[in-house]
Write a structure and sequence with these properties.
Radius of gyration: 24 Å
Number of domains: 2
Helix content: 55-70%
Number of helices: 7
Number of strands: 2
Largest sheet: 2 strands, antiparallel
Length: 145
């Protein structure tokens, strides 16, 4: 068991300044495990860190196989999330501009005006997202037209 203590000491000394965090191309620090940014990588956490890091590396490789890394480095994590998933808050004007009405309806039809009044003024943000998910399969709108 003496060798185990030496390995633990070695890991503790090598990984002393390493934390459960990652640094972006823009030098922003992101927690790999929420709340664990301050936890140093010690022998007891090393196995967990390797497991998490390996998963992140697979995600990164998959993403880079679709989008070159130099393009991704142009975005912060928040900007990339917005491009991929859309904005968090529902832009009702964007939705209205991109709505296509059926043959006998247009934006001035009384029932369409009632529809927008209910959706815009009476639905909560969560209800708007649920409506959008029902209609088009996603709960966010694109970032732009």
């Amino acid at each position: 068991m003496k060798w185990k203590r030496h390995i633990n000491d070695l890991i503790n000394s090598v990984w002393y300044d390493t934390r459960f965090e990652d640094i972006s191309a823009a030098s922003e620090i992101y927690e790999v495990v929420p709340g664990d940014q301050k936890i140093p990588i010690t022998a007891s956490y090393f196995k967990e860190y390797c497991k998490i890091y390996r998963q992140i590396e697979f995600i990164r490789q998959g993403l880079y196989s679709i989008i070159p890394g130099y393009f991704l480095s142009l975005f912060t994590a928040i900007e990339l999330e917005e491009v991929v998933y859309g904005k968090g808050k529902m832009d009702m004007d964007l939705l209205k501009r991109n709505t296509i009405y059926g043959e006998h309806y247009n934006q001035n039809s009384l029932c369409i005006q009632y529809f927008w009044t209910v959706l815009v003024d009476m639905f909560t943000e969560e209800q708007k997202k649920m409506f959008l998910k029902f209609v088009c399969g996603r709960s966010t709108l694109p970032s732009c037209d």
